[in-house]
User: Fold this.
Amino acid sequence: MAWPSSDRVVFPVGLLATLLVLVTVFYYPVGRVLLAAINPGGTPLAPIVEILADPFYLGVAHHVFADPMGVPAGVLTWLADGAPLSAVEFGLFGFTAYQAALSALASVALGLPGAYVLARFDFWGRQTLTSLTIVPFVLPSILVAVGFQAMFGRTGLFNDLLGVVGLGPIEVLYSLPAIVIAHAFYNAPLVTRFVTSAWEGIDAREIESARSMGATPIRAFRDVVLPQLRPALLSATLLAFVFSFMSFPIVLALGGLELQTVEVWLYAKVQSLDLEAAAALAVLESAISLAIMYIYLRYESGQIVSHTGGRSRSRRSLVAGWRTLSDPRRLAVLAYGCVAAVVFLGPILSLLIESVTGPEGAFTTAYYEFLLARQASTAVGTIAPLTAIRNSVLFALGTLATAVPMGVIVSLVATRSGRGSRLAETLLSAPIAVSGIVVGLGLLQTLVFGVEVLGHRLTVTGWIAVVAAHAVAAYPFVTRNVTPALAGIDDRLVETARSLGATRFRALLTVTLPLIVAPLVAGAAFAFAISIGEFDSTVLLAEGGASHTMPVALERYVGNRSIGPSLGPATAMGTVLLAVTAASFVVIDRVGGRYDG
Amino acid sequence: MFAPETARNITTQSNNQVVKRRTFLRTAGISVAGATALAGCSDAEQTEEGSPTATETDTATETSTAARTGTTTGTPMAERTLQVATYSSFTGEGTAGNWLKSAFESAHDGVTVEFVTPENGLNQYILRRQQGAPLDVDAYVGLNTSELVRADQELDGSLFATPDLERAGDVKPELQADPRGRAIPYDTGYISLVYDESEVENPATFDTLTTDPYRGDLIAQNAQQSDPGRAFLLWTIAEKGPDGYLDYWRDLLDNDVTILSDWEPAYQAYQNEEAPMVVSYSTDQVYYHGEGVDMSRHQVGFLNDQGYANPEMMGLFTDANAPEIGRQFMDFALSPEAQAEIAVRNVQFPAVEGVDPGAEFSQYADEPGEPVTFTYDELAGNVEGWIEDWAREVSA
Assistant:
C-alpha cells in the first residue's frame, strides 16, 4: 500500500492554498489596478514616465528622465555655480523617503533599548509588558492623532508636566518631528518585539563558552549576541521604513498638508478618479519598497548564524534595592523607561483621559453612555459596540488561524537554498509593500464589483473574503519573524530526525517548530493585531452587519452628531478597542508560551 | 399626520409607476453591460429580497419588509424597496435619514427605504458604471457639485436622470447648481470661520487673514479630501480669481496656516487651542450653546461679508430599479415638513424658500450677507486642475 507520504501532500497543498488566497485577494486585484499605469489607453508606461519626468515628484532627479542627454551639462553648470545645495530639490518621493528614514531610525532608537530591557532584566509584570508592546500597532490613526494632540499639544499633558518643572512650553505638532515621533510610536513596537524574541532565543551556553575561552563581556556580545540579533533588528527596521514610507492618515493629522507624502498624493488621485496617475505612483512606491526588501533579504541570507536551541540566559533583576540608583546600567534603563513612558504611555493615557473629559474640560461619562445607547438602539444604521467587539475578535482569530500556517509555508519557501528563494520571498512579501489604498481599490474593482465568468458576474464577498484579505495583510509579519529563526536552525538537527525515520512534516512539527515558538507567537500576535486594526478591506468585503468591527464602529462614531460633533465617543470606543486587544495579546502570549521550551 | 389625501395620491402614482418602470427597464437593459444582474429584476416589480452584494449595507431592522402589506388598492401591490446610497452619518439614531425613512414609509404603504453607505461615496457608482457592474441602488443623497462634475467627466452617459419633481421649483435659485436639474439640493451649509474672540478679532476680510496679527492663527482642511476644505479653497478662487488664488495661498502659507486632513481633526485641534481660528460652518453655535459653554470660542466670522454655500444634493440614478418611488422620496424631502426636519437634524439650512426650521435653529445659525458658490458650468473642466495646482503649491 503506497499512501503518498505527508511530505508530498502537506507542503504542496499548503503552498497551493497560500498561492490561491494570495492570487484571489491580492495579486489579481492589485494587478488590475497597476495595469492602468503599465498599459493605459495610450502609450505603454506613459503615466509612470510622466511622473518620473515631473520635478514635483522627483525633484532634481527628474532630469534623468525628462532630458537624460542634458544631465552631464546640467551637473557641470551646477558645479560651476559652486554646487549650491539649496538648488537641489528632492521632490515628493525624496521627502517621503527622508521622513521614512528618520522614522525608522527613531523607531530603532526607541525600540531597541526596550528589547534589551525586556530580554535581559527581570521585573514584576515583565511578561505582560512584553505582550502589550504591540498595542500601539492596532490604534486607528484618528486615535493616535487625538492622543498625540492631547499629549503633545500646546495645552497638552506634556507641556503641563514641563510647566511643573519650570520648562516649556514646546510646540511639536504640525511639524516633521511630530510625524517622526508618531511613526516611531507605531513602529518601535516592531523593533522591540522582533528583537526581544531573537534575544530570548540565544543559547546561554554559546556565551558561556565564549567567556570561558577568555572573551570579555563586550567581545562575547559582539561575537555571539549581535550576529543573532542583527537579522531581527534589520528586519524590523526595514518594516518600519516601508510602513513610514507608505504612511498616510497620520501625516496629515499631525503634520499637515505641507509635509505630505506620496501616499497622500496617491489617495487624492484615487479620489479624483485619476486612476492612471494613482497606479503609476503605486507602481513606483512598491518598486522602491520591494527593491529595498530584496536587497535586504539577499543580505540577510548571508547573515544567519545557525544555532541549535538550548537554554536561555537568566535575566538580572531590574530592581536591586538602593544599589539600583548607583548602578549606571540600571539608571540608564530607568531613564529609558521615562522616555518610553512619554512617547508610548503618554498618548495612550491622554486618550483615556480624553474619553472621560467633556468639551469644557470637566469630567464626563457621556461618551461611555453614548456607547451604551448605541448598544440599546435598534435604529437603522446604528453599530452596537458589542457586535463590533465580537466581529473584530472573530475576524482576528480567523486571521491568526490562516496567517500563521501561510507565514510558515512562505518561510519554508524562503529558507530553501537557491537564488530564486530570495526573489520568491520578496514577491511573496508584496502585501506589505503595496499601498493599502491600491489594495482596497483593487478589491472593489474585482471581488466586490464582480468579474464576468461565462456570462455570470461573480462576486467574492462575505466573512471568508474578509479573513482572507486580513490574512494576506498579516502573514508577512509571521514570515518576517519566523524566517530568520528558521534559517538559523542547524540542519543537522533535522537531518538526524529524518535519518531516524521521521517524515519531513513530522520533523517540522517535532524538531523545527519547537525551536521557533517565540518568533511564531510574536508573528501570531502581529497577525491578530493587523486584523483588529484593519478597516479598508473590511468595509469593502463584509456584507451587512458583518462589517461592523471596532475600527468601523469608531469611524462611524466620529461622524455621529447625536451628542454634537465630538471625538469623545470615538475615544470611548478606542478605549474599548485598547482593552480588548491588550487582553487578547496577553492571552496569545500565555497560550503560545506554554509550547515554548 | 398624513392625510388620506396623501394615500390617494400614492395609489394613482404607484399604478403609474409600474408602467413607467417597465418601459424604462427595456431601454436601460440594452446600454448596461452587466445584463445578468438586471435580468433578475426585469420580470417583476418585486425587488430582490436578499442582501445586495454592495458594500456596507445597513439593512432595515426596525421595519420588517414582511410585516407590511399593501392595503391601499384592490390590485395586489408587492412591497417595494428603495435603495438609497448616502454617507454614513446621514443614517443612524435621530438622524435626518432615519426620520425621512420612517416618515416616508408611513406615508407609502408597502414601501421600504434602505440605506447603503459606501465608504468611497459617489466614486463607488462612477466606477461601477464604468465597469458595467450593477449599481444596486436607486438614489444618492449627499452629492456636491464637484462630484457631479466628476461623474459627468468620467462617464459617457449621465449617471443621474432628471427627476422632474413637483417641488423642484421651490428650491432657492442660488442653490440650484446643476443646469440640467438632475442634482436637487435638499439643504446647504455656509462655510465660514469659527474663532475665539478672546484671542483674535474677526478678521472680516480675506486680505486681513494674511497679515501679521493672524500669523499661525488659522487651521484649514485639505481640499483634496475634505468638503469644507474644498469649499474654502473654492471660496478663495471665487474671491481672488483663478489667476490670483495661488498667490493668495502663498501668502496664507507664509502666514503659517495649518492644513489638516478633514473637519474633525481640524476642529479637534481648534478645541485644543492649537490655533484661535478654524474653517468650519456658520451653524457652529447650534451645536455649542447652553449652560457652561464659553460662547466666546464659538464666534462665526464671515469674510468680505460672504459665506461659501455648499449645498447637499440628491439624485436619481438613470437605471434605478424603483425610479418612481425614488422620485416620490425626493419630492417628499423637499416638502416643508421634511425640510424643517432635515435642517434641524443635519444642522444645515433648508434648501427650500420660506421654510422655518424653528426658533432655536434660527437663533444660533448665522446666514452670510452674500452667499457665494460656483455653479456646475463654472466648475466643469476646472475644479480638478484648481485643486491639484493648489496642493502642489502647498506641498512645494
